[in-house]
């Protein structure tokens, strides 16, 4: 897939539907995929910190979350014409998880927030398989990773804020071979809990 580049930072030109159909193929091939939201703050942070740039560029899909990216695309004459926000991408992945039977794990946010978000999601998607959830203030990372691994989750949402969630995903990707889709979702559990 051709990526657009903004100040050295990759952005995927795929729409929500494009990402889902690409993911379907990657899942069938047993490949792991990571989704990261890109906004002007992250592009600027990537200018200061080569590790941030590398972290973004090494992700499978860099979604154009901020309107600033759209504006840059317009000025540059780029191929990105609409936003792909983190929270809407998560909503599309939940639909996909329900329709294709992939179980989902939710990690992050405060206990009451993640519990309420999961309850709301289950009410909206009665056939979704929830592998589990853990709040984002859990200190024992090793135990958590083992719990997620044993849960059999295929899709993992990590809501710790940036760059904490992206670093967490990178650190634990290899320990979670059963998880095939990772998305760093920032404050999205707070949105789903409302
Ligand atoms: N959070 C967490 N653990 C932490 C710090 C933050 O689970 O150690 C959660 C916090 O409760 C909130 C989310 O991470 O739900 C941060 O959302 P924010 O909107 O700040 O992230 P952004 O989208 O700006 O990266």
Automatic annotation (TrEMBL):
Keyword field contains Glycosyltransferase: yes
Signal peptide: none
Keyword Cell wall biogenesis/degradation appears in the UniProt entry: yes
Pathway linked to the protein: Cell wall biogenesis; teichoic acid biosynthesis
UniProt keyword list: Cell wall biogenesis/degradation, Glycosyltransferase, Teichoic acid biosynthesis, Transferase
The enzyme's E.C. designation: 2.4.1.187
Reactions performed catalytically: UDP-N-acetyl-alpha-D-mannosamine + N-acetyl-alpha-D-glucosaminyl-di-trans,octa-cis-undecaprenyl diphosphate = N-acetyl-beta-D-mannosaminyl-(1->4)-N-acetyl-alpha-D-glucosaminyl di-trans,octa-cis-undecaprenyl diphosphate + UDP + H(+)
Role noted for this protein: Catalyzes the conversion of GlcNAc-PP-undecaprenol into ManNAc-GlcNAc-PP-undecaprenol, the first committed lipid intermediate in the de novo synthesis of teichoic acid.
Protein family membership: Belongs to the glycosyltransferase 26 family. TagA/TarA subfamily.
Name the UniProt record assigns to this protein: N-acetylglucosaminyldiphosphoundecaprenol N-acetyl-beta-D-mannosaminyltransferase
């Amino acid at each position: 897939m051709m990526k657009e580049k903004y100040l050295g930072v990759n952005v995927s030109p795929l729409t929500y539907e494009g990402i889902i159909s690409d993911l379907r193929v990657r899942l069938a091939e047993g490949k792991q995929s990571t989704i990261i939201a890109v906004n002007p703050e992250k592009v600027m942070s990537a200018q200061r910190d080569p590790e941030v740039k590398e972290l973004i560029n090494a992700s499978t899909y860099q979604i154009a979350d901020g309107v600033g990216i759209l504006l840059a695309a317009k000025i540059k004459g780029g191929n990105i014409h609409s936003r792909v926000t983190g929270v809407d991408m998560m909503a599309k992945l939940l639909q996909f998880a329900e329709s294709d039977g992939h179980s989902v794990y939710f990690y992050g946010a405060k206990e009451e927030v993640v519990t309420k978000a999961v309850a709301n999601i289950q009410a909206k998607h009665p056939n979704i398989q929830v592998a589990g959830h853990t709040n984002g203030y859990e200190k024992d990372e090793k135990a958590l990773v083992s719990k997620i691994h044993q849960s059999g989750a295929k899709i993992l949402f990590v809501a710790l804020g940036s760059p904490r969630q992206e670093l967490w995903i990178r650190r634990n990707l290899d320990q979670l071979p059963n998880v095939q889709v990772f998305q760093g979702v920032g404050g999205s559990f707070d949105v789903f809990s409302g």
